[in-house]
Design brief:
The protein is an alpha/beta fold. It contains 17 helices and 20 strands. It has 3 domains: 90 residues, NAD(P)-binding Rossmann-like Domain (Rossmann fold, 3-Layer(aba) Sandwich); 208 residues, UDP-N-acetylmuramoyl-L-alanine:D-glutamate ligase (3-Layer(aba) Sandwich); 132 residues, Mur ligase, C-terminal domain (Protein-Tyrosine Phosphatase, Chain A, Alpha-Beta Complex), CATH 3.90.190. Helix 1 packs parallel to helix 7, helix 6 crosses helix 11 and helix 6 crosses helix 12. It catalyses: UDP-N-acetyl-alpha-D-muramoyl-L-alanine + D-glutamate + ATP = UDP-N-acetyl-alpha-D-muramoyl-L-alanyl-D-glutamate + ADP + phosphate + H(+).
């Protein structure tokens, strides 16, 4: 159990000697920021919320109803630099001018997870990876909830962790953690940590150095002890390399589809085999709700968590068999004129698109594009050659996609809206084909976020 989670005197909201409440600043007023502000106010802090953009009406109304001071479309330094501590949105880079000024003033900058973790004694199951973390977090939560555990789902998914800590009494949390969140976590500890994979992503935030990004992912093991568990993919080269370079204090439980591992999980005769504490769990991959090679890994990781928590075998099998995947992740939209339309808008990096293509069993018209984060498309070339009959670009600047695939695909078309992309893809596809929106890029050139991109695509498909 975490030792840092009880409220300690060094987190008390009054400054010694003068009795004034400690100033606490939240940068960014989205789901995470609003929840953090509420928890901080509940704990007695003098809270101020600052957002350089426009605050959504939903969160503005919440802050007003809670009587929390806020500003939008600016950062007032005279207010912010009075803080004893700052929680920043994961989307704000550490190089942002306001963050540099805060750090130069000697003010600690932490994440919502770090802050909220101080005020709960719940057991923490923390999941990260370049790909699959949302699916694995959702599946793990499904397993625990169906087994009757009192569990919350938070982090990069669902409602704010801080708000749940303030308003609920969960005994377990499943937390999906991005590298951005991990970067601002220091004393927090995962009771069970899961690392799915490490592939190049968000390198613009890591000085375009893969090793910096990998080190960020391994922060999920920080502060773990021999009483904790670290579950990881033994088939991932970067994780294997990272394990050789660092000492992990937790009990390790690897998983693999290439080799037999005990303890841990492996694949044998199309069965997932999980062994923890000499107890065997076996389930055929044909019974899994999630299909495709990448989802075998996701199911193994969730299954190991379930076995560590000693959930009943029957409950695990039932939950793994009836799980429904999350929206915008290989989400079936419609079948029109014998053509399947799949929404994988959450695929914001090349590796996610690789996984999506790997799971396709028909010819594909692939919708790609958006904000390119320094993508290396070479890993897609073999799959594109064998599975993709046409590429529909959806983004303002598609030159790098054309350059990457002009020798592999006969047809590459530029489009500039979800409606146009869906229409063009429909005309390029034939009966039995799949139109797959799996962009490999961020969405911010044409859309608010990947959800907006996915929703506009689904609306466009329904109008065909």
């Amino acid at each position: 159990m975490n030792t840092n989670k009880n409220i300690q005197t060094d987190h008390a909201p009054t400054l010694p000697g003068n009795g004034r409440r400690m100033r606490f600043v939240v940068l960014g007023a989205g789901e995470s920021g609003a929840g953090t502000a509420y928890l901080a106010q509940q704990q007695g802090y003098d809270v101020f919320v600052s957002d350089s953009g426009e605050i959504a009406d939903k969160y503005k109304q919440l802050l007003q109803s809670w009587n929390i001071r806020y500003e939008e479309k600016q950062h007032s330094e005279d207010e912010i630099l009075k803080a004893a501590e700052v929680v920043k949105s994961p989307g704000i880079p550490g190089k942002a001018p306001i963050i540099r000024k805060i750090k130069d003033a000697g003010i600690p900058v932490i994440s919502e997870i770090e802050f909220a973790g101080r005020y709960t004694t719940a057991k923490m199951i923390c999941i990260t990876g370049s790909n699959g973390k949302t699916t694995t977090s959702s599946l793990t939560y499904h397993l625990l909830k169906n087994a009757g555990l009192n569990v919350g789902l938070a982090g990069n998914i669902g409602n704010s962790f801080a708000y749940q800590v303030a308003t609920q009494q969960f005994e377990y949390y499943v937390l999906e953690l991005s590298s951005y969140m991990l970067d601002d976590m220091y004393a927090f500890k995962a009771d069970i940590a899961v690392l799915l994979n490490i592939t190049p992503d968000h390198l613009d935030r890591y000085e375009y150095k893969f090793e910096n990004y990998a080190a960020s992912k391994f922060r999920i093991t920080q502060n773990q002890t021999a009483a904790d568990y670290f579950i990881y993919c033994a088939d991932d080269e970067e994780i294997t390399k990272g394990m050789q370079e660092r000492a992990v204090a937790a009990q390790t439980l690897p998983f693999s589809i290439k080799k037999k591992l005990q303890p841990g999980a492996y694949l044998e005769n199309d069965n997932i085999v999980i062994i923890t504490n000499q107890v065997h769990f076996t389930m055929s991959i044909t019974e899994l709700a999630l299909q495709g090679k990448h989802n075998i890994y996701n199911s193994m990781a969730s299954g190991i968590v379930a076995r560590v928590l000693e959930l009943r075998e029957g409950s695990i099998k039932e939950s793994m068999g009836n799980f429904k995947n999350i929206e915008h992740r290989l989400e079936f939209v419609a079948r029109i004129s014998g053509i399947n339309f799949i929404n994988d808008s959450k695929a914001t990096n090349v590796n996610s698109t690789w996984y999506a293509l790997e799971s396709m069993t028909s010819d594909v018209v692939l919708i790609l594009g958006g904000v390119d984060k320094g993508n290396d498309y070479s890993m897609l070339k073999e799959l594109v050659k064998h599975k993709v009959k046409a590429i529909v670009c959806l983004g303002r600047d598609n030159k790098r996609i054309h350059d990457a695939f002009e020798d592999d695909v006969e047809i590459i078309v530029n489009t500039f809206s979800a409606q146009e992309a869906a229409q063009v893809a429909f005309h390029l596809a034939a009966k039995g084909d799949t139109v797959l929106l799996s962009p490999a890029c961020a969405s911010f050139d044409l859309f608010k976020n990947y959800e907006d991109r996915g929703n506009q695509f689904k609306d466009a498909v329904k109008e065909l």
